[in-house]
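Priority: medium. Attachment 1 of 2:
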């Protein structure tokens, strides 16, 4: 039974007055300047979603241009230089500006505070800062591209190709600083999510009652903290080699080019799971809702997420089998690459068991999940046998690898993403997407994806290398490339249909009500869209599916202040109430701090002194950010447990 924990009855006059007071306190500033002051997680989360989706569209258009170029041999649609920029910008955008920001940052920022039953994310000002830094990094990257300074060394930017000797100019420098922007942003969000999950959960939401989606994002946040510093280090070392005269990757003076690959792939392979684990968490949530039963094997699903997070750090060298590493290392990383399929397989069997023992309702989100099953499993199967060193050496740098990682990444991220957007669209907007248009979009995408990427396996086996801008007519690759390019048309139309569905539904879609899917997680316990304070009374939890497991006498939290942005803190293990505090209010200082930080990063592309001089405005904005206010200080002092001296 689905139960509303917050407004089971009509509001009394006192409750209505409390709601009005909370609306005034939590409301975001209005006007142009007010836009830059917003710090609430729903506002920032929507901005993340829209921005990341725009980058997805741009990267898709770049892919379309590449498919036009490769549809015919000896084509001159793109020059070699433009093609290098296009495929680098496409890959870098998809990995650094779309996949992780969308699957981890955007979904986490919007949904996690709602799903754990609190009124905002931890450190809301840091959250706003992280978004602006991400936005400015993407703008910088594409301004460089539009001025013919787009990155052109691949999304991995290997040295020595990306080093100062082989890549003069500033193209690789802009790529390196993009990494700095996006990784600082990701680290900020990771800290916010961990604190939110471990300290701001609703009372009763013990560790064994945390929603599976929240568990997944928690695992990803831990992975971000351990993996992102590695690529930030490697990109900074690359930038210093190029602009500061260091020699980290110059073997002539004791540097090591393979050091760059180790640092990069220490991040680069866990990044695949930074994308897949949120997708798997979305799938778990949707399968449970549309199977109308609790998850089969909740503990196994959670342990699979944790196990995947640990194992993801143990197989980065399978990207380096062609570099001549010792055979004992090859054996280890082959075994590790195959072993990571075990937790993924366990999740798939738990999902199948959940559906088999439930009553499945086939709606558009569930169709996207079923598409995910087919595509991701196929990508995982090809991943198992290219983990074998002899097979990898034959297929390395061919289009077979391109097919494999698109099946894994699009299967593990884009299919669950469209499932998530159709599932939570009513929560964000209060309206339903059109079901028929949703299914048309799904089938066009599913067919187009397989038509586009399955032939890449075949053309890769026939020897077509990656990252070539043209090919001779007598190689036998033309027909397969034309089929791939035709498949892109289906993908393009599918995304257009989805966007039309969103646009149409925003104005004309059926009103969704509070819980249109009859789901069991806490985000559906409040109105759709939620008010700025999320919950009138903070909920309590009595089971893993909070709404399904609630009873008619389910208590709620009362007693929080209504004249400030008050919130409840709870203990990590059993989520017992611990105390109350207040969130900081809206301010423009995080935006100004992001502007100052971005200026320092961009100037450092041209001179290392950019960081030195840029630290001054950064320090000024941080002082403004943390400058205490007397009223807030007096309120905090009044709550202190220490006796006055």
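Attachment 2 of 2:
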């Amino acid at each position: 039974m689905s139960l509303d924990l917050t407004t089971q009855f009509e509001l009394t006059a006192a409750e209505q007055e409390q709601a009005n007071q909370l609306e005034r306190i939590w409301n975001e500033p209005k006007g142009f300047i007010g836009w830059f002051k917003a710090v609430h997680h729903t506002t920032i989360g929507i901005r993340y979603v829209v921005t990341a989706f725009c980058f997805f569209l741009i990267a898709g258009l770049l892919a379309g241009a590449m498919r036009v170029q490769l549809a015919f041999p000896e084509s001159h649609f793109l020059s070699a230089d433009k093609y290098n920029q296009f495929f680098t910008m496409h890959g870098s955008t998809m990995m650094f500006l779309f996949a992780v920001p969308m699957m981890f940052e955007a979904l986490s920022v919007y949904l996690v505070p709602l799903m754990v039953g609190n009124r905002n994310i931890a450190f809301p000002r840091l959250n706003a800062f992280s978004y602006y830094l991400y936005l400015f990094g993407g703008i910088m990257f594409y301004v460089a591209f539009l001025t013919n300074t787009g990155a052109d060394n691949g999304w991995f930017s290997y040295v020595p190709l990306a080093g100062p000797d082989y890549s003069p100019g500033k193209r690789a420098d802009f790529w390196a600083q993009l990494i700095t922007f996006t990784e600082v942003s990701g680290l900020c969000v990771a800290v916010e999510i961990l604190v939110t999950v471990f300290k701001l959960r609703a009372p009763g939401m013990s560790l064994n009652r945390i929603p599976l989606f929240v568990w997944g994002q928690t695992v990803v946040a831990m992975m971000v903290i351990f993996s992102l510093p590695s690529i930030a280090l490697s990109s900074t070392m690359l930038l210093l080699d190029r602009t500061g005269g260091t020699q980290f990757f110059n073997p002539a003076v004791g540097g090591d080019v393979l050091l760059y690959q180790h640092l990069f792939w220490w991040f680069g392979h866990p990044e695949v799971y930074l994308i897949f684990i949120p997708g798997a968490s979305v799938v778990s949530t949707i399968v449970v809702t549309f199977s109308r039963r609790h998850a089969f094997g909740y503990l196994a699903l959670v342990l699979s997420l944790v196990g995947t997070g640990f194992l993801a750090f143990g197989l980065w060298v399978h990207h380096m089998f062609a570099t001549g590493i010792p055979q004992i290392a090859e054996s280890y990383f082959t075994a590790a690459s195959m072993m990571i399929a075990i937790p993924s397989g366990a999740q798939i069997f738990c999902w199948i068991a959940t559906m088999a023992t439930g009553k499945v309702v086939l709606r558009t989100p569930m169709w996207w999940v079923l598409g995910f099953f087919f595509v991701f499993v196929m990508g995982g199967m090809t991943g198992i046998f290219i983990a074998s060193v002899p097979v990898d050496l034959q297929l390395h740098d061919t289009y077979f690898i391109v097919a494999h990682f698109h099946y894994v990444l699009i299967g593990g991220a884009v299919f669950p993403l469209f499932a998530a957007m159709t599932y939570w669209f009513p929560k964000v907007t209060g309206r339903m997407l059109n079901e028929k248009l949703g299914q048309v979009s799904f089938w066009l995408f599913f067919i187009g994806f397989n038509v586009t990427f399955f032939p890449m396996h075949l053309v890769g086996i026939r020897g077509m290398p990656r990252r070539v801008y043209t090919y001779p007519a007598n190689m036998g690759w033309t027909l397969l490339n034309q089929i791939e390019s035709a498949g892109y048309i289906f993908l393009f139309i599918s995304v257009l249909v989805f966007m039309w569905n969103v646009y149409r539904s925003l104005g004309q879609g059926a009103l969704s009500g509070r819980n249109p899917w009859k789901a069991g997680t806490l985000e559906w316990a409040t109105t759709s869209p939620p008010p700025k304070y999320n919950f009138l009374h903070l909920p309590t939890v009595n089971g893993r599916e909070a709404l399904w497991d609630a009873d008619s006498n389910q208590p709620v939290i009362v007693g929080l202040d209504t004249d400030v942005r008050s919130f409840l803190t709870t203990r990590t293990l059993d989520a017992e109430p611990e105390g109350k505090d207040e969130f900081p209010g809206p301010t423009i200082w995080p935006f100004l701090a992001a502007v100052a930080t971005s200026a320092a990063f961009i100037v450092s592309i041209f001179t290392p002194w950019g960081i030195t001089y840029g630290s001054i405005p950064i320090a000024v904005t941080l002082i403004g950010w943390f400058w205490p206010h007397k009223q807030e200080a007096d309120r905090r002092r009044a709550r202190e447990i220490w006796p006055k001296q």
